Amino acid sequence: MLRNIHIRHLAVVDELNLDLQPGMTVLTGETGAGKSILIDALSLALGDRADSGMIRAGQARADISADFDLNGLSTVNDWLNKQELDDDGQCLIRRTINRDAPSRGYINGRPVPMQSLRELGEMLVDIHGQHAHQSLLRRNAQRQALDAYAGHQKLLDSVAGQYRQWHKLREQLDELTTSRAQREDRLELLRYQVQELQELALNRNELTALEEEHDRLANLNQLRAGSQQVLQLLIENEDSALVDALERAASELERLLGFDARLSNIMQAVRDAAIQTGEAGHELRGYLEGLSLDPERLQEIDQRLGLIHDLSRKHQVSAAELPALQQQLEDELATLEDAGVVLDATARELAATETAYRSAADKLRASRRRAAKKLAKAVSDNMRQLGMKDGRFEIVLEAQDNYSTNGLERVEFLVSANPGQPPQPLAKVASGGELARISLAIQVITVGTGSIPTLIFDEVDVGIGGGIAEIVGRLLRSLGHERQVLCVTHQPQVASLAHQHLQVHKQSSKKVTTTEVSALTAEARVSEIARMLGGLEITEQTLSHAREMIERGQDTAA
Questions:
Q1: Best exposed site among 73, 76, 388, 467 by fewest CB in 10 Å?
Q2: Highest mean pLDDT among 338-347, 391-400, 460-469
Q3: pLDDT above 80 (res 512)
């Protein structure tokens, strides 16, 4: 609910700070006093369009702040959390209107675009009358009001869930169907590429082995000549073989051991070297005997390597990456070949989900029809109580082909306020007073199901009086037991039923005119009701009548 509003330099208001209470609050005052200033200011705070002409003369900026109590308003708290505008349960909205700069909006001290103010405002305040925020003029709000009255949240959740599943499958099927032509072209290319790589049959270690064997065969003559030369140096040169020299050196060191035992390790190392040299020479001789020229094998390897490198260039990868590429293409081929199966399965699943969606939507439609009949009768009865004796309220469910999270019909409120007049959409009702009273009639019936905490009715009593005005007041007061209700009124019958009474009055001097708002004491309230009852002179009888109206109102509408 709205706890406080502060207005500075707006139109005829210099500065106003007002605390508001739960229940029903009325604003009264002389004609022209500016009774709608609070509504105008609140509308601006909630994102309505502003211009510099609204700024008080002689000032550079107008400033409006509205403080809301969010207790029990989980939807609003969730929205603030999601927007990262939460502040320990606080909700302070501020709007500044500048003469030489764009207006600015703030939520809990943080700057926000006007759209954010409007979104938040639609969850906090509903203004009924010739102003913005008339939520019941919007079809979505009409549908929500009917659904809330019907109390079929489980049906709504079921329809929404089935729709989301249907929409997801519809997108998947569209994607699969759209890509079918491209898929066939891709399949043909993949089958050729995979077959080519499978015929190559290159394993991960083969390339290294082939390159090593190719190097050996291509350089066979150099290997044979070099190996023969080394063999001569090691063991086959009769005059200067290395093994013979080492053996002679070992023998000489062995002779010298008789003179110095410290030569033992050196002698053993030389003898071991002679042995290893001899073994190396014999192994090299075996290697030479195994070297044989094989031109056919060399040609075979050349061809194999040529094929491998041709394919690597074709696919623009290194030869070593061909096995991994083959696996990748095989996986893609398998996926695309299964796509036809997936498409058929998706089509079947989509059909089943569509059937389930329609079934859930049909149940929702049946529940809406039952609720619409009951709600229309109740609102029609209230309209007659509110002075529209020939008033008739209808709710039309218009079938639609397009699937949505809200079912398969549009909801529209129709009303006929006069005899012989066919029901028309609520948005086309010409009279602002009638529209406000119709809104009041609907709100009274649906008050237990709505979520907007503050309701404002701007002159809902236009064109009525007497007993009808008292009925309006009683309905507003009953709404005040569930929500916070603010009402601008000219009728003493309405004002006498309020929980809180605010008086709007204008003060003028030669240079300045200022509108002020004050909460009335019990005695001041009697005087204001007496003024509203009329007459050139406020007599004791008028005051007594006013006091009686207030007492009766408090007793009968507690």
A1: 467
A2: 391-400
A3: no
CA distance 175 to 156: 29
Domain count, the chain: 2
Which is nearest to 3 in space by CA: 51, 87, 65, 54?
Answer: 65
Beta carbons of 483 and 457 less than 8 angstroms apart = no
Contact present, 329 and 193 (Cβ < 8 Å): yes
pLDDT in tens, 152-174: 999 999 999 999 999 999 998 88
| Beta-carbon count within 10 A of 470 CB | 23
Q: Are residues 142 and 192 in the same domain?
A: no
State whether 248 and 126 are in the same domain.
no
Which helix (H) or strand (E) segment is 49 a member of? none
| Domain shared by 222 and 265, yes or no | yes
Q: Answer yes or no: is 75 within a domain.
A: yes
Residues 196 and 323 in one domain: yes
Say if CB 140 and CB 361 are below 8 A apart. Answer: no
What are the pLDDT digits (tens) for 233-259? 888 887 778 988 899 999 999 899 988
Range of the domain at 490: 2-151+386-519
Average pLDDT, the chain: 86
Q: Does 133 map to a domain?
A: yes
Say yes or no: 206 and 144 in one domain. no
CATH number at residue 406: 3.40.50.300
Which residue, among 188, 235, 166, 186, has the nearest Cα to 405 in the 3D structure? 166
Do 439 and 128 form a contact (C-beta atoms < 8 A)? yes
Residue 536 scores a pLDDT above 80 = no
Does residue 99 sit in the same domain as residue 210? no
| The one-letter amino acid at 528 | E
Amino acid symbol at 190:
L
Q: How many CA atoms lie within 13 A of 27 on its CB side?
A: 26
Same domain, 190 and 294: yes
Can you give the length of the chain in residues? 558
